[in-house]
Design a protein that fits this description.
Blueprint: H1 12-33, H2 39-46, H3 50-78, H4 80-99, H5 104-132, H6 136-165, H7 172-175, H8 177-191, H9 203-206, H10 211-234, H11 238-260, H12 268-272, H13 274-304, H14 309-315, H15 321-334, H16 339-357, H17 366-394, H18 400-437, H19 440-445, H20 448-456, H21 458-466, H22 470-509, H23 531-540, H24 542-547
Helix pairs in contact: 1-5, 1-6, 1-8, 3-4, 3-5, 3-10, 3-18, 4-5, 4-8, 5-6, 5-18, 6-14, 6-15, 6-17, 10-11, 10-18, 13-17, 13-18, 13-22, 15-16, 15-17, 16-17, 16-22, 18-22, 20-21, 21-22
């Protein structure tokens, strides 16, 4: 390749292609959180019911999570560049439709279409990195960029939303997607090579796409995530519990079907390798803490520190500065020692940040909370970067799409679990503390429904405090802020314990799966159980596969 500095090394064209691929990733991850501040304006305009409002917020994430595995396998079959272009077209068209939706039902349907487009884009971007960068060190840098862009997008969503809503109507938060999608459609055909499973003459490529497996994977993930979210929001109830059980049963059927198929949607042998399955589980634990604590930090900045939504969104970007230091340091250390030890150290670093967060009080200085956030965010992103790199490096190029989809599905499930478990812990502490703190005369002065709202959420207490006499309202609000902060502290303990467990898992289960990253093509390290040798042989065969038609 004329623009590559050396055989096997990516050159200017590959790095420009990476930059282009990061555009959809940034916007897809932003769309997960961009409606948080826009929903009051949407509610005023479209007047959705409470149930419709929840679906407007959740539909995008549900469909995105449920279709990742299907789209990853489809990209492996029809071509990942082709799927990126199709996803960009769907995402752009759905963005226009969402901006001009005239009813709540229409917006829910279009949010589902946005999830379809996002699911086509996300695994393909990570899979194409596997095919663009054959050198282990360069691929590590590319995966670091991918992870940072994904996490930054989630953080930027509320900021962009707040900025746009100060000057434009709520539909502008969707129209911001259009320029990037147009740029993607124009540049990708010239910069990104097509890649798919082997060549079109293989038996697997001629087999029809397995629609049954696609339906099973979609339904299983949707029902599990729905059940977990409903359980977290409303406590135990038969319907959410049945949804989780049904999802697990369907997942079991899906796995059994994959074992019988000649060309399965998920390579279960690959998932069983420590060098791939281990990082998938480590990423799940990292997202458990990331998403589970994000809700607490956002509410603390707004409802305890008293910042406006836009101010809170801007300050919430400060912890991301920890990534600037932690991720490059972790990458450098991974060149010199076993990545399992570096990942374990990153999880310990994150646990330190969570333990720091347990010391935050209602009257703590803003910087005290932000430093804690910077420590745990830096540790988590460093660990996720190395886990992503290890997993994608362990996957053969022809299965990179489905491998990336499995990795991202694990992240989505981890996030849902984190929100459910840690959110439930915080809610339980809040309710208990408020039940003890509210004087009987204050409870008697509140209408029945409003008293329940005060006991359940900090937002409910803040709304009720405005309607009470000044002194009583101030007392209720102070008690609610203290109860919320105590709930956040206990949830932080839970997150820290999980991070210590993730560190122990990395030290024990991932040791020897990758060895050191030498920066040479094919550097896989040596694994005591053979996983490292398998990974090494995969990487050494990358260029040979490229020369024989894996990359077109």
């Amino acid at each position: 390749m004329e623009n590559s500095p050396a055989p096997g090394l990516a050159g200017r064209r590959e790095w420009i292609a990476l930059g282009v691929l990061m555009l959809p990733l940034l916007l897809v991850s932003m769309d997960i959180s961009i409606l948080y501040f826009a929903i009051p304006f949407v509610s005023q305009d479209l007047e959705p019911s409470a149930t419709q409002q929840l679906w407007i917020l959740d539909m995008y994430g549900f469909v995105l999570a449920g279709l990742l595995i299907t789209m990853g396998a489809l990209g492996d079959r029809i071509g990942r560049r082709k799927l990126v272009l199709a996803g960009a077209a769907v995402f752009g068209a759905a963005s226009v439709a969402a901006a001009y939706a005239h009813s709540a039902d229409a917006l829910i349907a279009v949010r589902a279409l946005l999830g379809l487009g996002g699911a086509a884009l996300m695994p393909s971007t990570l899979a194409l990195i596997r095919n663009l960068f054959h050198d282990a060190r360069q691929r590590g840098r590319a995966v670091t960029i991918w992870t940072a862009v994904m996490t930054t997008g989630i953080s930027l969503g509320p900021v962009v939303s707040g900025l746009l809503l100060e000057h434009f109507w709520w539909g502008s938060v969707f129209l911001i997607n259009l320029p990037a999608m147009v740029l993607l459609l124009v540049l990708v055909p010239f910069l990104v090579p097509e890649s798919r499973t082997a060549d079109s003459g293989t038996e697997g490529a001629r087999d029809p796409f397995d629609l049954v497996s696609a339906a099973l994977s979609l339904t299983a993930l949707l029902t599990v995530i729905y059940g977990i979210k409903e359980w977290a929001q409303h406590g135990f109830a038969p319907v959410p519990a049945l949804a989780v059980v049904l999802g697990l049963v369907l997942a079991h059927v899906f796995v059994r079907r994959q074992r019988r198929l000649t060309h399965p949607m998920i390579d279960l042998d690959l998932l069983g390798r420590r060098a791939f399955g281990g990082p998938v589980f480590a990423n799940l634990l990292a997202m458990f803490a990331t998403v589970g604590m994000a809700v607490f930090l956002t509410q603390y900045l707004q409802s305890v520190q008293g910042l406006s939504p836009f101010e809170a969104a801007l300050w919430s970007l400060v912890p991301a500065s920890g990534v600037i230091v932690a991720a490059p340091v972790a990458t450098v250390l991974a060149q010199r020692t076993d990545r399992a030890y570096v990942m374990g150290g990153a999880f310990i670093f994150a646990a330190t940040g969570f333990f720091w967060l347990t010391q935050v009080r209602t009257d703590s200085a803003l910087w005290f909370c932000l430093v804690a956030g910077g420590i745990y965010v830096g540790g988590l992103v460093a660990a996720m970067t190395l886990a992503n790199e290890l997993a994608i490096g362990a996957a053969p190029p022809e299965r990179a799409g489905s491998a990336a989809a499995v990795l991202e599905s694990g992240q989505e499930l981890g996030g849902a679990l984190g929100m459910a478990v840690l959110g439930s812990v915080g809610a339980a502490v809040y309710s208990r503390e408020m039940a003890d703190a509210l004087p009987a005369d204050v409870v008697a002065a509140l209408p029945g429904g409003e008293a329940d709202a005060v006991r359940e959420t900090l937002g409910g207490a803040a709304a009720a405090a405005v309607r009470l006499p000044a002194e009583t309202g101030a007392g209720v609000l102070a008690a609610a802020r203290d109860a919320f902060t105590q709930g956040m502290a206990l949830a932080s303990v839970g997150a820290a314990v999980v991070m210590v467990g993730a560190a122990a898992f990395s030290f024990v289960a991932l040791r020897g799966t990758a060895g050191r990253a030498t920066g040479k093509t094919g550097a896989g390290g040596g694994g005591g159980d053979g996983d490292g040798l398998e990974r090494g042989s995969v990487e050494e065969g990358d260029l040979a596969r490229a020369q024989t038609g894996v990359l077109e």
